[in-house]
Amino acid sequence: MTHSVLLIPDFALQSLRRREPRTVGKAVAISHGDGRKARILQFSPEARGIEVGLAVTLAMARCPGLKILPRDLDAENESTRILVAVALTLSPRVEISGDGYCTIDLQGADAKHTETRMHACIGELAAAGFSARAGAGESTLLAYYAAQRTERVLVIRDNADFLAQLPLGFATPTRSQTEVLTGWGITTLGGLTNLPKAEIAQRLGTAGVQLWERAAGESNRVLRLVEPVKTFEAKWEYDPPVESMEPLLFRLRRFAECVALELRAAGMVADKLSLVLRLEDETEHRREFRLPEPTGQVDGWMRVLQAHLDTVRTEARVLGVCLTANPARPPEKQDSLFDTGLRDPAAFWENLARLGAVVGDNCVGTPGVADTWRPDSITLEKPAETIPQPADDPIHPRRGLTLRRFRPQWCARVRLEEDRPIFVESDEFTGSIRDAHGPFHFSGMWWQPEEAWHAEVWQVETDNGAIYQIARTRDDWSVEGVLD
Amino acid sequence: MPSPPSTVAALRSLLAARFPERNRRSTGVVATGVLAIDRALGGGLPAGRLTELVSAAPSTGGQTVMAQLLRTTRTARQRIALIDAANGFVPDEVPSDALRHLVWVRAHNSPEAFAAADILARDGNYAVIVFDLRGLSERTLMKTPSGLWHRLRHAVESRPSAFLVQSTTPLVPAVTWRLVLNRPVPLSSRRTAKTDLANAMSVEVARGQIEFEEQSA
User: Which terminus of chain A has fewer CB atoms gathered within 10 Å of its CB, N or C?
Assistant: First the structure.
């Protein structure tokens, strides 16, 4: 096989139903044209008694309760993006041949692997909400016939056998050609191709030869290949604007699926997502999400996006949304034998992202100590996936109780006697000091007057036995924390 | 109507059959490195259970327990999470190597802290989750609906993590273990190594008992 076709039958209807799930299971028809000229283009199996090409008024008369909807070109474009993204996983040479119809050049591909992959493509399209078919053969036309003939996947092994079963209608003969051929007793493509091509040319002329070639599946046209996607982005507008998050999340998921498929087709995953909500008051809500682990899984993306959107309150209704995924190479790693890794890495990174959405991305991580003597200088880093071997115990062990800081510090008034604190008064506590240890002087950045800092720190024990750390910066005293 | 069980053993089996989650035994313990606590708990913090450590007064050693727990879990290469409701943890107070297995969540208020606890309790990647509520006002904490605690307890019961709540007053309803630190450490102990301080601590068991293997009646 050299070509394959991915086909979504009733493309306009399937695209619309994917966007409007309320229409599923109901009698729905897609109309084409305006006013009295409007005709039925496609209709759902629930719509009884109507046919393609029927006038809309007549269709409504024949099928009471029939809902007539116009084509939704936005939905069809979105579906085409998904179809192309899935097709690109078969081969990089893909053509959009029609509505819901992609032709793929398979030259050089391993046949066995390709057939398995075609099944996977149909599964991926089903997951995206489409009932699709795939066919493969020696030409674009044969592949198309195969896709039309099957309910799922069909690879043509023997052309003659396959064509012998196909009705003549597959080659789209004109009415007069059909009458002539039926008169000759020919009802299948195989029957027509059994006749010598030259004889057909003599009797039916050039049009007859073209029909014979179509019936034989002969096609040597050059595919007009699609350009691979370079930006992984989905944008849409709401009319009317939305007020609640439910419709937003529903469409966000659908577009995220589309972007994820395009990323996968490019062999990439996302390491960063960017979400922009365009609001009715002409402002924008922008947020960037750095994914803890690069991934192409929509569920992982949605958990991060949903956790954020659950906390968002906008001043105005949402007019439009733009979701962009930053492409990155899939992570590759090989753990060493004695690494203490994660039981469930996906849950770990997803939960970190959810925590980031709750408390802020800069408030979750593994703490580190900044390269300065300035008290309370902290850095937060991305947690390690594996816990390394512990270092040897420090030569000088830490001593005394452990400080727990008050953030922000408590303002205090401190009474001194012979330069030692003897009484502390603050809004939170007041008491005499029975023991004090200090002072410890810390300073830094003295060479830059604007950033210079200095602190005089004391550890004091109050009458009730509590030990606090107090500090004086310039002339202000504060209680920095409790030694606990 | 079925007849009531005639022996204690029969009653136990009936309860175990009716409430399998409640009667599931803890699957292991995580040593804290504080002698008195590990002794009281039968080896350490029980996995799949809530343990409450109440610091009844300032400077009774609650934060030193945290520092010691970080050191012990680091040695055992176990992952630990700290939900810091009042944002009081000081990384400089422990050696930087003892922080490499820690995920620190700096919450800004009580609802954020409970939301974070709910997420982490269901994670399953942590050996210990410390939920430090010290520093939040008692009034705010008393308003916490008991349903939140029950939800947390149920989440923890089905996971392999030990869950330690640090508070200044008893908060957790139906907690498995409640230990109380009520003896302040004097300032004169500032030259004593943290490990020695931790080993010298005493705790009062206010609630809970060690789970023994079921005995036949």
Answer: N
